Amino acid sequence: MKTIRSNERKQSSGYKKSIMTLLVVSLCSFAGNAQFLKRLGKNVAERAVERGANKAADKVVDKQIDKAFEEKEKAEKEKSGTTEAPEEKQEQIASYSKFDFIPGEQVLYAEDFVQDNIGELPLNWNSNANGTLVGIESPKGNWLKLSKGKYLSGSKLKTFGNDYTIEWDMILNVVSKSGYYLPPVSFGAFSSGADSNDDNKFLSDHRQVHSFEFKIDPNEKLNTAIAMASHNAHKETFRSDRKTLSGFGKTIRKVAHYALSIQGSRLRLWIDETKVFDVPKAVNPGATINQLFFASETTGGYDDENYSYLISNIKVASGKPDTRSKLITEGKFVTSGILFDVNSDQIKPQSYAVLKEIGDALTTNPDVKIKIIGHTDSDGSAASNLALSKKRAESVKKFLNTTFSIKDERMETDGKGLTIPVADNKTPAGKASNRRVEFVKL
Q: Which of 65, 98, 318, 325 could form a disulfide with 161 if both were Cys (CB 3.0 to 4.6 A apart)?
């Protein structure tokens, strides 16, 4: 709309000045903007060009014109029943069409920091830095701000297993300065061996047993560099070449989704929809990985007050899902890998691979009919969660129909809200497990 308004002003340079008289009459005569918009019709604008007004009225008129166009645009959208958000969300999901990450079946560890206090380090985390939780409105939630130093997650697990996935969201909220490098960020996982996951010695050296790690040197305008390495008892067992991420700049100051899949020694990393690494022997055989770490460094021109690297929505899940077998052969498939915006039925783009698995299974088995059942955690009222779970099931059905051409008559939907939990709603991992979608063969 900005371009449209700008062009209209250029086409009629005296428009803003001369409409003042008409505007005063219109605003006095009519109670609502709908009547005012009628006065902004083409014929009125053409007559108004011939009138004069003083320069002091420019800003007032400009504001009213902008408001008028905005109200008109809003009214047209409401009348047609359309909004911009769903279209944008569909485009985002479509961009993940090559995203083949599928999360593990069983949630082992999760953090969204909702139960932690703003301004403090999250419970069970350890750090050698001044890391604190911050609450932000868009996207709404609690996020851990990474100051210069290292952070060990709150995991108390003995092992993630042989096949597992790790996911988190990260915002690199920083503005580039000419002549200075952006602060690097590192992340990875390691085995604590016989020691506690949060032992202080891992803050200075996480390579004492088994580990793998990544380091990103962000660059907003040029190519970002990323490298990966693995270690065993301080000895390097693998090191990648430094790779460039030409499109990484688009993630700066936005939420980016990071996903790791480990199957035995094979490791794959995605940043948003882009697969960055797929290394067959990156993880040391027999490594009992059980802890996550994140780290930030400062560079010249950037101290802790000049940038905010934020992380949240961490999830570790075990298992190698076999969607087709479970749905078609066993008759039931349950996943926490279909994600939605908070308190919404809008499907997140990173859900694409799981939905594609379902779509492919139904396409190759055209006689199979299913029921899609939504479930929620216990946050909020029972009534609102019941309604939300039903809407989410309907949203999944619609996506399978529009994206994979699965006929509506092959799919039923239902929602159970918070009534059938499969885990403890008092823990983040339990809540993540309860936020799930169930597919039942009919």
A: 318
